[in-house]
Model the fold of this input.
Amino acid sequence: MVAKWMVRNRRSRFQNFTRLMLALAVSLVLLSGVTSASAQDQPPAPPQDNTQNNGKPKQDAPAEAGGPGGNVGPYAIPKKNPEEAPPPPPRTSPTKVEGMSDYSIKVNVPLVNVDVLVTTKSGQFVPGLKKDNFRLFEDGSAQQITNFNVSKAPITAVLLVEFSAGDYYFMYDLLQTSYSFAGSLQKDDWIAVSYYDMQPHILVDFTQDKKAVYGALNQLRIPGFTETNLFDALYDTLDRLDRVEGKKYVILVTTGIDTFSKLTLDKIMKKIKDTKDVTIFPISVGFAMREYFEARGGHAPHGMGIPVSQMDYLQADNEMRTFAAMTGGRAYFPRFTGELNGMFQDISSDIRNQYSLSYHPTNNKLDGTYRKLKVQVVAPDGAPLKVKDQKGKEQKIEVVARDGYTAKHTVD
Done:
């Protein structure tokens, strides 16, 4: 009887313990759920001070908005203001790729340079003119002068001398004229010497040595051929000068007679039109000999005693005047050798005292057409310019500039 009671008592205590443990487990589950819900409803904790007493930041201090908050936690990304446009990205130079060439785009903007000589009727240079004194026209349309200066730079010139058996009567004049030009050179000038008969021959290339120039001229003693192929020689000289930078001059010592050139007058005229930055100064020789024979009813001989008619010489003189006018130079026709020194002084003054004008044409098409130029010199108020000499006498002025230019693309 006692044994049965003890068994029932143990079984009752075990069941009570089981119930107690089950109730405790349920309580823990409910308590954890309430705690989690309370944590979600609580406001965020205030930001902690991320500095120590000495002002240095802590190792794991959270970063500002836009960056990570330490080793843990979310990324805080601030909202953008829709009214504020994002700043443009900074400009950076393109990365240089090793082994690749640099390329650039070059745009040709037409710029026309015009050298203008302003002298009195007596040949004196008129100094002191300003940009406002000049009016420039292209095909009748006024142009705005953008650059203006007075050029006084050293000269670069070719002395091109006619030398053939037909020049026997003119030999003294030829050499005297050439020596006079060489004597007018200054130390910084560059000069080349060539002569022509059937074809051009270079005696000395560009040099600053006057002795070399005199030595080259001393070789002109015994001509070998009769022909004087002026057009061929001038074309070749201009072609060579195309490769020389800057302003160039051709001092052409010649009778102007062309005997047997392969090129025609039209072709040499086109070459002159297409050539830039070259001014031609022709100097006629043998004028006194021509007058001597013509006064006696004959013709000045040329070549192996072959007479050349007056018409031929008149045509030659007109061609030389045309070559000069097209390039902004002047043609000279001395009657006596005593005039040569004065003429070369004039040429030297012309070359060294020129007004240089530049402009961008209103017609900027590079279509290969020939544009006519006209330059006027006026007073600042637009009235005709009045120039007086030292005695107060009014002098007329002459304006010398090239007749025009060919608008075409250039290859650099």
